[in-house]
Design goal:
By secondary structure, the chain is of the alpha/beta class. Helices cover 44% and strands 15% of the residues. The chain has a 6-stranded parallel beta sheet, with helices on both faces. Helix 3 packs parallel to helix 5, helix 5 runs parallel beside helix 6 and helix 7 packs parallel to helix 9. The longest helix has 21 residues. It binds nicotinamide-adenine-dinucleotide (NAD).
């Protein structure tokens, strides 16, 4: 029987991953955890086992894994790209020391791990278009440095200790349940809220900044599909490029305009986030994920936009 610990469970992805896993494996088998509790998260903190857990505290990680007989960890707790640039040391502590705590306890207590990486592992020297699975990865943001280091550490633990660690490089995640947590692609969520509430949006990235995106249902399905894939078919195991939608702010605004004809976008560029975006790929080649474990995202730009406007329309009534 699976006993799954989810770290960082109250973030953008955890808010939807926890209910998805509870539906799939039974609420009693999913232990949601977070460093602190906030208002509006009662569905996660109350719908099954929940633990307050700071992943930088090794003892606490050990004790939660032991207490619940955890055999699998979806390790979501992290600082993201934009907030990380404000405090690189704090990001390193959470993203690297936190990951080492999870890896060490997983090694000692025989757990498998899902580790989400990011397109932030790529940098200005990586090919920009259809960026390959295996290519130059020399990121320039502290977030990217932590993610590529994390990928390498996961590979090391698999090779040295045989730990079953799998992971994806997510592009920007678009979703309606929780707000994004301080990343460079947050505009692609904020734009929907402002389109519905104000009919206009001021974007912090340039109109032609192309970055890949993925809609939450594909995020959830992809994670579980990879964790359940036949290991014999996985040549990479870890750090798979995945993508679904290649889009610029201008193109996303045009799609929204089809539903909200008066919608208007203007631009007030944030140099920090623009520099990060400029260092990332325009689009990704995710053929390794498609080939090795059947990655097959369902949501394109049109379907995602329709669904986001429908879901947020209900939420913001
Ligand atoms: N959302 C995206 O666009 C995106 C894209 C690529 C990769 N990812 C990766 O997916 C994972 C989840 O991302 P998300 O968007 O849900 O992030 P998020 O910022 O919304 O959530 C992360 C959660 O981790 C928590 N956290 C931070 N420090 C912690 C600590 N010391 N102990 C315990 N919890 C702590 C935060 O409070 C937050 O709730 C991260 O690893 C992220 O790097 C996300």
């Amino acid at each position: 029987m699976k006993k799954i610990l989810v770290t960082g469970a109250l973030g953008q992805i955890g808010t939807e991953l926890v209910p998805y896993l509870r539906d799939k494996y039974g609420p009693e088998n999913i232990i949601a955890s977070s460093r602190r509790v906030k208002d509006g998260c009662e569905g996660i903190t109350g719908g099954g086992p929940f633990e307050l857990l700071d992943i930088t505290n090794r003892e606490a990680v050990r004790s939660v894994i032991k207490k619940h007989g955890v055999d699998s960890v979806y390790h979501l707790a992290s600082m993201l790209s934009a907030t990380g640039e404000d405090n690189p040391q704090a990001l390193w502590d959470v993203n690297m020391n936190g990951l080492i705590n999870i890896l060490e306890e997983a090694r000692q207590q025989s757990c498998s791990i899902f580790f989400p990486s990011s397109i932030a592992v790529f940098g200005p020297d990586s090919p920009k278009d259809k960026t390959p699975q295996d290519t130059v990865t020399r990121p320039t943001s502290i977030y990217g440095v932590s993610k590529i280091s994390g990928e390498l550490l996961c590979d090391y633990y698999h090779k040295k200790y045989g730990l079953d660690i799998r992971g994806l490089r997510y592009p920007g995640v678009i979703s309606s349940a929780a707000m994004p947590g301080g990343g460079t692609t947050d505009y692609a969520v904020h734009i929907f809220y402002d389109a519905i509430k104000k009919g206009s949006y001021t974007c912090f990235l340039e109109e032609n900044s192309s970055i890949d995106m993925i809609y939450m249902p594909d995020v959830l399905e992809g994670a579980v599909k990879l964790m359940e894939a036949d290991p014999a078919k996985l040549q990479h195991r870890n750090a798979f490029n995945v993508s679904a939608i290649t889009v610029t702010p201008k193109e996303l605004a045009a799609e929204i305009k089809k539903h909200i004809p008066g919608f208007n976008i203007d631009y007030d560029i944030d140099p920090v986030r623009q520099a990060i975006a400029d260092s990332w790929p325009n689009s990704l080649d995710d053929s390794a994920a498609r080939r090795e474990w059947g990655w097959d995202p369902q949501y394109d730009l049109k379907m995602m936009t329709e669904d986001m406007l429908r879901e947020l329309g209900k939420k913001l009534q």
